[in-house]
Sequence to fold (102 residues):
Amino acid sequence: MPATFEFDAELWEWSARQDSWVFVTVPQHISDEIDDLIPNPAGFGSVKVAVRVGSTEWSTSLFPDASSGTFVLPIKKAVRTAESLDAGDVSSIWIEVVHAAQ
Fold:
């Protein structure tokens, strides 16, 4: 059975590159569950996922955030445009872990 998660999160700009990088923070309890599913993540600790925001779906990766101890999810510009979202907005997020330990 695939591991899927839903949550609401606020979009935020990465302070190092406010011109293009917008993320949401995956809640701690979901990040912990994903950590349990993926004992040996890919490079940089990333985890491949399928994502849906509104009616827009795409594939990407979650990335570990050392400062919060959670994963962060990049929300690309095409998605933000299609869903009329900007930094500071709250959106419902659906993710499915694509590659979990067997």
Summary: The domain at 4-97 is CATH 2.40.30.100 (Elongation Factor Tu (Ef-tu); domain 3). The first strand starts at residue 4 and ends at 10.
